[in-house]
Amino acid sequence: MSRQRPVALIDRIASEISERGPMFFDRFMEMALYDLEAGFFGAGRLRSHRTGDFLTSPEVSPLFGEALARFVVAEADRRGDLDVVIDCGAGSGSLLAAALPHLGDIGAVAVEVSPAARQALAARLPAIRVVGSLDEVGGRVRGVIVANELLDNLPAAVAVRSVDGWLEEAVIVADASLRATTVPARPEVMEWAVRHAAALPPGSRVEVQLAAGKWLRTAIGMLDAGAVVVIDYGDTTAGLADRRAEGTMRTYRAHHLGPDPLLEPGATDITMDVDFSALMAVAESSRAATEYTTQAEFLTTWGLRQQLSTLRHEELAAARTGSTMERLQLRSRVTEAETLLHPRGLGDFRVLVARKSHQSPVSSPQQER
Ligand SMILES: C[S@@+](CC[C@H](N)C(=O)[O-])C[C@H]1O[C@@H](n2cnc3c(N)ncnc32)[C@H](O)[C@@H]1O
Questions:
Q1: Residues 319 and 349 placed together within one structural domain of the fold
Q2: Which residue has the higher pLDDT, 216 or 358?
Q3: Are residues 308 and 298 in the same domain?
Q4: pTM score above 0.90
Q5: Mean per-residue pLDDT, 28-32
Q6: Does some domain include residue 8?
Q7: How many domains does the chain have?
Q8: Distance between Cα 48 and ligand 1 center (Å)
């Protein structure tokens, strides 16, 4: 019996378009990223590691996971009964690997949609549970659910402002290629755009992040106590306004900006700036209290600048008395910590902490002084 070759992803997308008509962009993104045979995350290799396609904060330095662990332990100390950290979109496991030694009795679960990443997680962190979706975690959670650079990858629709109102971008096949067109916007897309992008001029392009909102609502809904922490690039609705002429959707491959998302579905990451105002609205409607900061502020609150200062002193001491190897290792740890805090890079990422509103915010050691 001959084995059939799998149909290329682009051909399956084209065939769905010919059966059902223009494909909304969120469906296109779902297939391009998460298709289990050929999607960028769904198939093939692990993407988020140093030799992969992008470098995230946990991959840059273990100090990121350590700072997050201090936040989790402080939350648990105040509440008394948090018992788990759930890393959703855990990638290679670098965040949990760095955090685990500092979590005491608090356990960990990794949630990963990518089979390659799940395999890597099971090999690297054999003591923790690895599941494929938040739903699989099961039961009520007293703990902290973290999502670092997850929500920018969740499928989004694209709304386009016309002089008469909102249209929606959809994918069609023309001249044997995938092309973008506009069609009347679906009601839920129009409603989101009216709510979060009403002030924009005609021609504006807005990523309608319904799946990100749904993820946050689900995560908050799972909590009996604790918090959801979303860390990502993005801004408030107002802060994103001047990026809306073109929209913020873009692709990455091998650490560089890639081509138009329609050209090579499955071969590139597709990502966008996260609208944190829309997420805060979801959190508030889920009766969660929100705190919104930059990554640099969050990591400073949880001790990273103090660690950086200690490392710089150790580096100076090593320059006087240590070996070249020791000095170089300290230099590299200093550079990594500085990268996490850089005001025009990772330090400008945003952090949203959403807690059930009957809980008061936790004060950090720095704030207590
Ligand atoms: C940009 S990577 C970030 C990985 C990791 N959090 C880090 O900071 O290094 C996004 C990860 O989220 C995973 N992912 C995407 N959608 C997911 C979902 N709905 N549930 C769980 N994991 C998901 C992808 O497979 C990928 O490993």
A1: no
A2: 216
A3: no
A4: yes
A5: 97
A6: no
A7: 2
A8: 8
